[in-house]
Every structure is written in C-alpha cells, then in structure tokens.
Amino acid sequence: MDSILLFDDPAIRGSLLPFTFTRPVADIRIGILKISEKWERVTGASISFLTQDYLQKKFPPKSGNALAINGALLPDSRSLALIKSLSSNQALYFGKTLIATYIGETEKNLGAVKSKEIIQMDYEPTLLLKTWNIFQFNGAEIRKDFDLITQGRKSAKITDPHTKLYSPENIFIEEGAVIRATVLNADGGPIYIGKNTEIQEGSLIRGPFALCESSTINMGAKIKGDTTVGPHCKVGGEVSNSVIFGFSNKGHEGFLGNSVIGEWCNMGADTNTSNLKNNYSPVKLWDYTVGNYANTGLQFCGLMMGDHSKCGINTMFNTGTVVGIGSNVFGPGFPRKFIPSFAWGGEEGFSTFLFPKFLETAKAVVARRGLELDAEEQEILRLIFEMSKNYRIWETTS
C-alpha cells in the first residue's frame, strides 16, 4: 500500500463545519492523532488529501495511482483488512457511503467508481458524521491511539515525588515532559503525556486523556476523562470530554465540557460553556447543511468553535453553541447559539470583523508562536470570509 488518498465525502463534509472550513475531514484530530496520522501509522503508506478546491493547494493530492479512502473513516482492524482485500475493479461501501477504492491518476474526482463491483461492509464502521462525534468518540480513539503509539515502547519515568499515579501501567510519558505535584488517575482509561509538555502543580487528571506535544496544563487544572489537548496549547480550569485541536489557549478558570475547539482559538478568563439544558431535553445544534438547528439527540453538548475565534473574559456560551471561523465574542449575557464566521460582538448584537483587521490579529497571534500565516492560509481565510457572508445576516439587513 504505497499511496493513500483520503477524500472528503461531500455528503459528510458539510456536517463537520465549521472545522472543515479550514481543513480536510481527515485533518481533524480525534483521540491523540489526526485521522490522517492514524492511517499513516496503521498502513505505513504515504498520505495525501482530496478536498475542496480552495483547500487543495495547502493539502495537495499526490500524483499516480492511489487507494482512495473516505476521510471520515476512523481505522480499525476489520475495516483495514477489508480495504486491503480490495482488487482494482472493486469499491467498498457501507450502505450508500463510499468507503474505499483504487483510483488512477486521471480519476481524482472518483467519477469512475460507479462502474466498479460494489462490495458492501457487513458491519457498521466508525465514521465521523457530525461535529459532536468528535467528542463522542474521543475516549475510544484515545484508547486505540494509545495502543498504536506505545506498543513495544517504554515510558519515561516520573521523578517528582509529589506526583501520584493510579494504574501506572496505563500511563505513558514521552521524553521531555515535566510533571509536578499532580494526580494522574488512569483507572478509567489511559493517559498519554506528549513530548516537551508541562503539567503544573495541583493538577488533577483522569483518563482517558491525551496531552500532545509542547502543551501545558496550568496550576490547579481539573481535567476529566475523554479529553484531548492538542499540540502547543495552554489549558487550565475545568475541562471534561472535550477536544482542543492545537495552538489554542484556555488558560484560566472556567468550564469547558462536551466541546470541540479548533486551532488558534483563545478563551478569556472565566469563560464557561453550558453543556446541559435546565430541562434536560436533547440539545439542538446549528447544522450548516440545513441552515437551521438540528436535534443532536444528546443530553450533553457544549461549544463548537472554529479556527481563529476568540472570546473575552467572563463569556458565557449557551448549551449547544456553534462559533464559526475568525469570530470575536465578548460582553455580558449569553450570545446567540449560532455565531457565524467573522462576527464581532455578543449578546447585545454583532457586526462584521472586517477581514483586514482580522488578518492583522491572526498574523500577530501566529507570530507569537514563532510561525508565519503564509499566503496560502491567508487566501483560504479570505475565501471563507466571502463564502460565509450570507450567514452574517446583519450585512444583508443593513
């Protein structure tokens, strides 16, 4: 298996917005790894993406023949065996959803698949179909990734005498991690601590939990299970069953639960997310594919925040809030439950975060990490600004 092309299924991608505004489906982090990184590890193949045209320059497909796999598929041993058994004239489906097929250099639009022999899966694979699946499936994916990453390897030792471990056999520490006066409780699931991370004094952490490379858990944090903190993040306060993709900060007190936070986000001190309605009814969440709120069927669902969005101190997010790309939320009270991309304001109303001003801020934020917001990324963000205009209803009514 030399080359794998992870494709965006158009029937799925829209349901994973706002996160797929800025990345292919398979670039989503769930568990410890991104979906693409999982496939790279389990197959040893070269990975590339087939995605939206405006993202393709940043995520280019490799030339030549390839095994095309649905980017929403989370790999497991059964699906991997089925995919490996495919011949070049076969296509693997689950119901009407294309799972995998071999394609040639001229078939990058997957148009030739219709003429192939259809093989139906006899069990339901794990597909990332909705944004809330990211936190829903996260605990199981941490367990799978933990086994994948740590198999045959030896954990670094914790030398701090004031750190307490429960079920140490379920804890793996990469080199360069610094842990002080912390409780790591892996009774309920594995705990993975990445390279060059720091866990400060007084932190209480329960597994399944993943802390990815160069991230920090601030003093006194309370981290509950099924939580992932991606690379280059700073996290404090209380976090439960949430995924933070990377390069984002929630450094202070406040509660984040059953939530997904994109890259380059910042949550001000004492930001709180409601994840349960007072009447215990199922949570409705904005669905970009229908342009309205859809019933998740979940009792617990918090915040979905797209890349480059920020919120000020003491921000309160209602149960099941969606924030798009590049928004800035602040002020008293509860803002609306759907905040479109490049919105500026809060409960008292919104205006447009004009693109030049947004870009100025985004460049400064990225530069603080010693990185550069390159021309490709700037163009992607500019296009998202244009394509999200219709959601900023104040622009059409003003």
Question: What does this entry look like structurally?
Answer:
The strands form seven sheets. The protein has a nine-stranded parallel sheet, with helices on one face. A six-stranded mixed sheet has the order 2-1-3-5-4-6, with helices on one face. Strands 7-10-13-16-19-22 form a six-stranded parallel sheet, with no helix packed on it. The protein is globular, with a radius of gyration of 21 Å. Helices cover 18% and strands 28% of the residues. A hairpin with a 2-residue loop joins strand 4 (90-94) and strand 5 (97-103). It has two domains: 3-129, no CATH class; 134-397, UDP N-Acetylglucosamine Acyltransferase, domain 1 (3 Solenoid). The protein is α/β, with parallel strands linked by helices and 398 residues long. The chain contains nine helices and 35 strands. 47% of the residues are buried. It starts with a strand and ends with a helix. The mean pLDDT is 96.
Approximate strand percentage: 25-35%
Oligomer: single chain
What's the CATH class of the largest domain, please? Mainly Beta
The CATH topology name of the largest domain reads UDP N-Acetylglucosamine Acyltransferase, domain 1
Q: What order do the strands of the largest sheet run in, or round the barrel if closed? A: 8-11-14-17-20-23-28-31-33
As for the number of domains, it is 2
What is the fourth-level CATH superfamily of the largest domain?
Hexapeptide repeat proteins
**Number of DSSP helices?**
9
Shape: globular
Main sheet?
A: 9 strands, parallel
**CATH architecture identity of the largest domain:** 3 Solenoid
Task: Give me the Rg, rounded.
Answer: 21 Å
Helicity level: 10-25%
N- to C-terminal distance:
55 Å
The parts where pLDDT drops under 50 for at least 5 residues are none
Class by alpha and beta content: alpha/beta
**Number of E strands:** 35
Integer average pLDDT: 96
GO molecular function: acyltransferase activity; nucleotidyltransferase activity
Keywords: Acyltransferase, Transferase
InterPro entries: Bifunctiontional_GlmU_bac-type, GlmU-like, Trimer_LpxA-like_sf
Pfam family, one: NTP_transf_4
